[in-house]
Amino acid sequence: MDAASSEGQLPARRGVIFLGPPGAGKGTQAARLAAHLGVPRISTGDMLREAIAEGSPLGKEADPLMEQGKLVPDDLLIALIQERITRDDCARGFILDGFPRTLAQAEGLARMGLGDASGWAVFEVHVPREELLRRLSGRRWCPKCQATYHVTSRPPKQEGVCDLDGTPLVQREDDKEAVVTRRLRDYDERTAPLVAYYRERADVRRVKGDRPMDAVFADLKAAVEIPA
After folding, report:
1. Could you give the CA distance from residue 161 to residue 169 in angstroms, rounded to a whole number?
2. How do beta strands 204-208 and 41-43 pair?
3. By C-alpha distance, which of 197, 35, 211, 61 is closest to 128?
4. Is the dihedral of CA 95, 92, 75, 56 positive or negative?
5. Per-residue pLDDT at 39
6. What span, in angstroms and rounded, lies between the C-alpha atoms of 200 and 75?
7. Where are the domains of the chain?
8. CATH top-level class for 14-224?
9. 14 contacts 121 by C-beta, under 8 angstroms
């Protein structure tokens, strides 16, 4: 079943949750799966960066935390997600990228009137720690158009310069090795317990994320499609 004929694949007002550490490739796969299903991908990271760029009150509060690789308070993210999922484009379902990250956020999601967790497709994307460090510390970012690159696996055509607009690329503070190490430790302490939380409430599928992107996507697509 292709994206154009995918209505009914996701229960109304429910969707897909990705669990996994920073650098596991959740954002890339979430975007591909959203396009395939014809539903929006909701990325808390993107929404927060937009708020920072706009200088909104939320952005001003989140900016110093994100610069240090720290998590934004649960109540702010819950409010942000709750507002976003009420929009019309989420009526058939949606994909959450970067939320929930804590048990409090998962409980906040459960209070949003979306039914019990069994109605969600929940994926745990697993990648070995050494590969996560390589992926994250090698990322480079265009501050103008938000395009992302990697020094080894996805380098720009001209070193240090964005392919799309010629802007010098930067390494975000939260991608520097010391911050990456702290982010992974935070994941182990605060986010990894979500796997146990959802295993008690839903069918959590573990996906090996240290494979070619097409192989990972094939597994995800097969898991959410309804047989003809």
Report:
1. 5
2. unpaired
3. 211
4. positive
5. 92
6. 24
7. 14-224
8. alpha beta
9. no
Selection from 97, 50, 93, 44 nearest residue 72 by Cα: 44
Residues acting as catalytic residues: 26, 101, 139, 172, 183
| Cβ neighbour number for residue 116 with a 10 Å cutoff | 10
Q: Which residue has the higher pLDDT, 142 or 53?
A: 142
pTM of the model: 0.77
Task: Tell how far CA 223 is from the center of its chain.
Answer: 18
For residue 214, give every residue at least 6 positions away whose Cβ sits within 8 Å of its Cβ, in sequence order, or none: none
Give the percent of the chain with pLDDT over 70.
Answer: 92
Q: Which residues are CB-neighbours of 117 under 8 A, at least 6 positions away? A: 110, 198, 201, 202
User: Six-digit token pair at 73?
Assistant: 């308070």
How big is the chain by its Cα radius of gyration, in Å?
17
Lookup: tokens for 24? 């596991």
Nearest to 35 by CA among 95, 103, 81: 95
Closest CA to 101 of 220, 196, 193, 202: 193
**Both tokens of residue 179?**
């911050």
Whose tokens are 């395009």? That residue is 147
* 200 neighbors 162 (Cβ within 8 angstroms): no
